[in-house]
Amino acid sequence: MAEDHGRKWDRCLADTAVKTVTGLGVGIVFSVLFFKRRTWPVSFGSGLGLGMGYTNCQHDFRSPYLIHGRMVKDEKLL
């Protein structure tokens, strides 16, 4: 149980970090190219990434019985 909990935390932190840095990068690009170097696209992009990561973590911790990457079918006995 503790190992599974640790795996979920690792996945959440990695996912949140990737989404936040990607949002930050997209915000910087949009700030430089389209918005005359204003700061709001950078903060908006990083906040959007942080929010998506947080939402994924909430979903991951609230669904403890979800099996990732497998499809489980009910088999009826004849």
Describe this protein's structure.
- It comes from Salarias fasciatus.
- InterPro entries: Mic10 (IPR007512).
- Keywords: Membrane, Mitochondrion, Mitochondrion inner membrane, Transmembrane, Transmembrane helix.
- Belongs to the MICOS complex subunit Mic10 family.
- The chain is mostly helical and 78 residues long.
- It has one domain (1-62).
- It has two helices and no strands.
- The chain has helices at residues 2-33, 40-62.
- The chain is elongated, with a radius of gyration of 18 Å.
- The model has no long low-confidence stretch (mean pLDDT 81).
Care to give the gist of this entry?
The chain is an all-alpha fold and 78 residues long. The chain has two helices and no strands. Component of the MICOS complex, a large protein complex of the mitochondrial inner membrane that plays crucial roles in the maintenance of crista junctions, inner membrane architecture, and formation of contact sites to the outer membrane.
